Amino acid sequence: MKISINQAAKYEGQQVTIGCWLLQKRGSGKIQFLQLRDGTGFMQGIVVKENDADLFEKAKGLTQETSMYVSGTIKADDRSDFGYEMEVDGIEVIHASEGYPITPKAHGPEFLMDNRHLWLRSKKQHAVMNIRNQIIKSTHDFFFENGYKKIDPPILTSSSPEGTTELFHTKYFDEDAYLSQSGQLYAEAAAMAHGKVFSFGPTFRAEKSKTRRHLIEFWMIEPEMAFYKHEDSLEVQEQYVEYLVQQVLEHCRLDLGILDRDTSVLEKIRAPFPRITYTEAVELLQEKGFDDIEWGEDFGAPHETEIANHFDKPVFITNYPKEIKSFYMEENPEDPRTVLCADLIAPEGYGEIIGGSERIHDYDTLKQKIEESGLGLEAYEWYLDLRRYGSVPHSGFGLGLERTVAWLSGVQHVRETAPFPRLLNRLYP
Ligand code: 4AD
Ligand code: MG
Fold this sequence. Notes:
With 429 residues, the protein is an alpha+beta fold. Helix content is 30%, strand content 25%.
């Protein structure tokens, strides 16, 4: 019977075969412990010399990443987190791997990134991708269960929602085009047709940032809701993030264990989340001795981390000054210097994971903002149409997938959260 490692529990006591790779092995002159992996999980195979001397010699000669069919009996094993191991009685090598570059010794990040196509096989990287997958699945579950429709915005675009400095230019035959920075403007159009929508796709920022939070290509989840005020959107955000955290805790227990993630801090992530205004945040930072920040300036990573450290949950920083936010944000009636927006800052120094706002729905106001931003009205005529024909208050937000994966996995750098991250100076592999 051919099974996969994650089915082992169902086959306890039975003779099975698994197609797998050798992650590592250790042993003595009498017994070999084979660390097997098959993509679905990791399991130990045991080969005892006394039982079969030829098989023992074969096992001893296996090299790292050799692919094979391993046969034997599944046994319960209380000592491992996985709970099962195999008493091996047959090994059929498919391909003997020689000189695998990623050995059990420590390697530097640049070497590992050069070998990303192989590094993906390692136990920790496998765990991070499992968590990424769970977040992808839970995102679909959350929004579909709550009555949202998935609308896919284009990737080749003629407009720039988040300013013009970070655009990837390309040619669209004879026209100029940009790779999408955000699907938001298209999601707004879709919300006027479908009410509640979300997009989930790749976005691109030609940002010369080389930090542990920045990717050049990242995936964003962008819900957009007609008739939702900013407050309503904040509630969706905290429920969504709580759901993601709790689903990861429930379904990724082994992965979190492999990553040594402190799950007690994640257990506490329950809605509602605390909120402070930008103005309060500036005051708090000044009290804490950050004399480099003044009202009107944007926060950097150290500022966000300082604010986050005051809470054990993600925190919303609301109502930023107009000048440092995008053109489409609705003015805050209580303080017209600011807009109806919020950034959600993750705990433990992971920084901003969500940016969201209520959108301007008045035609004249939006038109003026586009002109002031120097964006050129022509490319935004269709966007202005949404305010010409049955405009309604609406709100939405964007959650960065990789930053969320980094936070929940507890990995320090977003480069480990995308299968093939695009970074400043890295397009290979
Ligand atoms: O704050 P941002 O730029 O917001 C928007 O793009 C809005 N149009 C979203 C919306 O309202 N529909 O980006 C949203 C999120 C950030 O909070 C962050 O998590 C992630 O996208 N993000 C990045 N992640 C990795 N690398 C980068 N360079 C990122 N830039 C933004
Ligand atoms: Mg932002």
